[in-house]
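Tokens for chain A. Residues wanted.
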């Protein structure tokens, strides 16, 4: 029988000794991260202003939704990081590639970035870098341009079948270059303006939106669950369910991190879950985890009583 003693979402981070801590450390400039974002920001601001049009907006919107839904929330987050479903390997590679094209980093780096934050947040105290606390402007600078160097970091171990997979190793090494095939197709179909909007504007919007939703979801919203002893609580953002591809149901995700379904009630719209349901209907997804199939005995998880206000506000989602 499964237990929650060592859930899959945090087993990659292990304490080295009694000094291991998510509190002590230094926020430092990350040249690669900063220059990557700044370059695309400049292209987006200057090129986007000069080339904006209806076609460009359609291309931007379609690719942003496609890569964030199929790629980031399903391919990288729910599939590769949390293993909340199983798909054929060729499809997994395709979905993770789409998640890499979002522009946040390669698959191995994304596993580390996600798991170090989760590990830190599950302690009674954690550095603000991991919990999205503090001023909005400072958190934006940190997340777009910096990295955290912990003084006593945990040991990070990725599953051998991931870290030794030649496709994932290649994706990690070439994660920036994976924009090129898409750029060539965009140029062939619509010229430079489509590259500006389909690559740079999309990357800037995706990275900024991902950070901002995370900041909001760790500050204020609705909660159905309380996680005792955690440095930060996740909150559900009912008006942003559709826009975030389901990632806005962050309180649900904190409570059930291995669930493939983030919107747990019928009024909690979750496009990522809808996409997974489509894969299931096509026979392409199996072993799909939901709260009904996951272990129930997680000691720090406590259900909160539903309030009339919480139920009513959820009805006004997009």
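Reply:
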């Amino acid at each position: 029988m499964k237990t929650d003693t060592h859930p899959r979402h945090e087993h990659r981070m292990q304490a080295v000794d009694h000094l291991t801590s998510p509190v002590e450390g230094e926020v430092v400039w990350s040249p690669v991260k900063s220059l990557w974002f700044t370059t695309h920001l400049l292209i987006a601001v200057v090129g986007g202003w000069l080339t904006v049009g209806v076609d460009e907006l359609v291309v931007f919107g379609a690719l942003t939704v496609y890569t964030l839904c199929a790629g980031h929330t399903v391919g990288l987050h729910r599939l590769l990081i949390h293993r909340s479903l199983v798909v054929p390997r060729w499809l997994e590679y395709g979905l993770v590639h789409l998640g890499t094209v979002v522009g946040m980093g390669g698959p191995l780096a994304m596993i580390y970035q996600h798991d170090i934050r989760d590990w830190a947040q599950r302690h009674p105290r954690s550095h603000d870098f991991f919990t999205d606390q503090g001023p909005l402007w400072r958190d934006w600078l940190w997340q777009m341009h910096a990295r955290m160097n912990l003084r006593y970091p945990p040991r990070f171990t990725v599953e051998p079948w991931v870290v030794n997979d030649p496709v994932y190793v290649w994706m990690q090494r070439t994660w920036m270059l994976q924009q090129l095939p898409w750029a060539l197709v965009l140029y062939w179909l619509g010229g430079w303006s489509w590259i500006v909007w389909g690559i740079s504007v999309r990357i800037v919007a995706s990275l900024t939106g991902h950070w901002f939703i995370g900041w909001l979801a760790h500050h204020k919203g609705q909660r159905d669950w309380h996680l005792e002893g955690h440095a930060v609580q996740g909150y559900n953002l009912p008006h942003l369910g559709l826009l975030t591809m389901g990632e806005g149901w962050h309180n649900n995700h904190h409570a059930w991190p291995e669930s493939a379904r983030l919107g747990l009630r019928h009024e909690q719209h979750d496009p990522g879950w809808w996409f997974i349901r489509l894969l299931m209907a096509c026979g392409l997804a199996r072993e799909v985890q939901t709260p009904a199939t996951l272990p129930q005995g997680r000691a720090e998880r406590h259900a909160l009583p539903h309030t009339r206000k919480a139920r009513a506000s959820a009805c006004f989602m997009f």
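The CA atoms of residues 117 and 300 lie 18 Å apart. The mean pLDDT is 92.
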